[in-house]
Amino acid sequence: MTPRPHDALFKSAFETPAHAAALLRALVPTTLGELIAWDTLTGETGSFVDPRLADRHSDLVFSARLRAAPFSVIYVLLEHQSTGDPTMPLRTMSYEARIWHRFRKAYRATWLPPILAVVISHVRGGWTTARTLAELFDPAISACPALAALAALVPRVPLIIEDLAHRSNADLRAWMLPAFPKLALWLLRDARDPRRLLASFDTWIDSFAEVERASGGSDAMTTLLTYLFRVVKPMHHDELRAKVRQLGPRAEEITMSIVDMWHEQGRAKGRQEGRVEGRIAALRRLILVKFGCQMLDDRYEAAIRNATLDALDGYLQRVLTADSVAAVFED
Length: 331
Prior knowledge:
Layout: H1 5-14, H2 17-27, H3 30-33, E1 36-44, E2 47-49, E3 55-57, E4 60-66, E5 73-81, H4 88-107, E6 115-121, H5 139-143, H6 148-151, E7 160-163, H7 169-174, H8 179-190, H9 194-200, H10 205-213, H11 217-231, H12 237-244, H13 249-291, H14 298-305, H15 309-319, H16 325-329
Parallel strand pairs: 5-6, 6-7
Antiparallel strand pairs: 1-4, 2-3, 4-5
């Protein structure tokens, strides 16, 4: 089970260049969109490593040709955010810098490509933080005419923020997108608000049917339904399953498979936790009896609690021959 279901759904829906291009056409200002040859949009690697070897990651990165200059290229950063991030423009600038460094290294080009940054926000209540890097600077710099020379040093790094919180079902349905990415946007917007999700579910039944009929429909339906039952809280699952039954027997079959898988994962996790707790209790009892302790020192208690199953087995073997409590835990 993925620990980052929003990321998984977003990437499944928009890593296909045609899907990303259809979304971007709807969001990018016309004057800019007309300059981009959207049919040339190509996926690029989105993972970067900075000089300190700290992992950095952007959601999706694409490149495309420019119509006005057919030998020139533009890069597109397509991000999604489930929570507000006041430093989003700064993060974006760090991604852009890595793209430029990589571009210069790969192509030895004289000119750097422009980069368009688009953020799909499904932040509850809407996006309320900075949309440009300039907003992270003291506003007095730009407001004071006497500081014009200083203001010229402040970079803008603008973001296009698509705020799903303020989009209606009609808005989403009007976009010229295939059914799968359109449903993904709806679920990103509503899945953490079960009442809103259940109230609007019937509006999207025809889109689910379209997904099921399409090539790869079974995989797409599995992705959507897995996300639904992963994000919607269990207290609403009975109502959700009643809605899913309206989608037909295939959707119900997929749902049953998902539920069975999670139950088995839960049982396996319970068995693992039971084994761990049993070893913890046995180890603690052996140490207290062998060394005549009333209780364990906090650092040893923490070591036991944080130990893996293999580490606990090692401690249990060591306690048989150790001549002190410290010897049980030393490396």
